[in-house]
């Protein structure tokens, strides 16, 4: 298999290229899921953990005290620590609607999120709608081909059709949210949520896999970690532990 750097060279989408490049340069395949509802705590966490991550994932609509400065401050941290911003918006409507949800409203996601994601459920028109807004800005889309919680419906034929849909719009679709590697086309990045240093569950359906299982055994590229980091006694140290576990698993996969 190819290194992240070799895969960067294959990519034409600028966000995919930037992602693989910074993963290689900073030796990290860790994405922080910064699911914090207070702005100052959110920014403090991102600043503390920023040096260990390649991507910070947001749910901007869960923040109680969001204001326009939130994004400016997040962008400053993204420059300071050199990470990409991924808004986990999970668009799931028709093309004309998702286009406006992406561009307009109070969050103007297209202006600041390098990466967004979408369900494949509404079909290719939704991807086209998002692409009308994001492609010329150099943004990238992850399609949700699989989900982490128990009993979810993104399985088998749904997953296969999602991958096919992504391949058909590979100028904008940079990869997949999945539990495993789904295609040998190495331009696509696979990002996996539901990761903790110890496997388990959260009581609301979430299922946790370990970094080694996700990256080495199942061939994914990026581990997405939320509570494993921000609920730790020392989130900075926890992020370093996840970063090391993710990177060791990647190096072991390269050797295998
Ligand atoms: P956790 O605290 O590490 O369990 O958070 C996982 C994050 O990933 C959280 O923001 C979810 O919304 C997100 N997620 C997920 O857990 N599973 C999925 O299948 C998808 C997203 Br898609």
UniProtKB/TrEMBL annotation:
Catalytic activity: orotidine 5'-phosphate + H(+) = UMP + CO2
Binding positions (substrate): 35, 57, 148, 206, 226-227
Protein's UniProt keywords contain Lyase: yes
Catalytic site: 88, 90, 93
Broad EC category: lyase
GO terms for MF: orotate phosphoribosyltransferase activity; orotidine-5'-phosphate decarboxylase activity
Pathway(s) per entry: Pyrimidine metabolism; UMP biosynthesis via de novo pathway; UMP from orotate: step 2/2
The entry's keywords: Decarboxylase, Lyase, Pyrimidine biosynthesis
A GO biological process held by the record: 'de novo' UMP biosynthetic process
InterPro entries for the chain: Aldolase_TIM, OMPdecase, OMPdecase_AS, OMPdeCOase_dom, RibuloseP-bd_barrel
Enzyme nomenclature, EC number: 4.1.1.23
Domain Orotidine 5'-phosphate decarboxylase residues, every copy: 29-242
Role of this protein: Catalyzes the decarboxylation of orotidine 5'-monophosphate (OMP) to uridine 5'-monophosphate (UMP).
Family: Belongs to the OMP decarboxylase family.
Name used for this protein in its record: Orotidine 5'-phosphate decarboxylase
Origin organism lineage: Bacteria, Candidatus Magasanikiibacteriota
